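Reopening: YDG domain-containing protein still failing for me.
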Amino acid sequence: MGIQDKEQEKNLCPSDFMSYTRTPLSAIDSAGSGDDNAQSPIIDPLLDDEFLLELCDTVRAYIRVRKLGPRWEGAMGFLAAALRDESDGTPVIELGTIQYAYLDKLLDDIVNIGRRASQETRLYEDTKRAENLQRQWRRRFGEDYFALDENRYRALPKVGRMKDMALDLESNDIYERWKARGCETLSELEGNLEFEPGRWWLTLACAHRDGIVGSARETLTTSKYGVHVLPLLTGSEYMVPKSETIKYVRAGKISDIHVSLVNKPGQTFRILRGDRLQSPLAPAFGVRYDGLYKMKQYGQRFNPNTEQHHMVLTLERVRGQRPIEDLLHIPRPSEVDDWALFEKYECEMVKREQGYQGFLH
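Support: Ran it again with your exact input. Result attached.
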C-alpha cells in the first residue's frame, strides 16, 4: 500500500495553530517568533545535526495533528537566527545539515499550513519567515537544494537505511524478499543496552542486519544469551479491557503459530511490530521495536472446517519502560519521508531485475 493511501492529507485550518506554549530550547529559543529586526541569537556553528533533526521531527509531527506544539516557538527562533545569518552574508547552516535534519521539509510544512493564515496572526509572520529562508537557501544552493530528495535517495543503499541490503526475488513471500548481506550477532550487550524502545526500521531484514533479531522471517529467535525476540508482523492484536494485557491472534499452517512458545509462558520477549499487523499499536509504516513483554499464556487450536491452526498469545508489557503511548507517533516525519524513498527504491530495483512486466506482476 502506498504512502498516500495510508496517510491522508488533512485540511489544516489556521485557527488550529493559534495556541501554543513557550518551552526553553537551549540558546536558540530566546529569539521566539518576534520581529526579524530584533536581536536574534547567532546560530552556534556546533549546533548538533541530531538536535535539529529531533526539533524538526517534533514540530512536523504536531503540524500533522493540527497543532503547533510546545517547541514551535523555539523552532521559529532558530529560523529567525538562520534568516538573519543569511541576510548578513554569514550563513552557518550548510546543505549537509539541511539534508540530514530535513530542514527543507520543515519549511515546506510551515509554508503549506500558513497559506490560508490571516495577516493579523503570528502564524502568518512565521510563514513569511519560512518562505524568506526557503528563498535564501534556494538562491545560495541553487539546483543542489532542489536535489535534496534525490541525494537522500542515492544515499539510501550506500550509507542510509538500506545499506548492506540485497533483493531476493526468488522468495515466495514479497515481504521477505529483502535480505541482509551481513548481520550482527545478537550479543549480551545488544540484548541489554543498545536497542531502546522506539527504534524503527524499513523492513524486518533491516532489523536483522542490525542484530536485534536473528532472522529476516516472522519467527521467534533466541540468542545464545537467552534473549527472545518475537516479531508481530501479521495477524491481529487487541487490548483486554480493564487490564494491562493484550491478546495476539494468528492463524495459518502449523509452522505459522510458533509452537516453540508452548513452553515459554512467564518468559520475557522483545516485541517488534510491523505495519501489516492489525492492531492499534502497529506502526503506520515499517517495523518498530516496542520493548519488553512477558508472555502470560499460549493457546492454540485447529479448525477442521478451515484447516487452519489458530494461536492466541496473552502478553503483558514489562513496567518501567518508555510508555507505549510515546511510541505510537513513530515512525516520525523524517522516517515517513524515508519510507517514501524506500518504496521508490524497491520499485526501481524490481524493475531493474525483472523488467517492467515483472514489476506489474
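DSSP finds twelve helices and ten strands in the chain. If you still see a failure, please send the error message rather than a screenshot.
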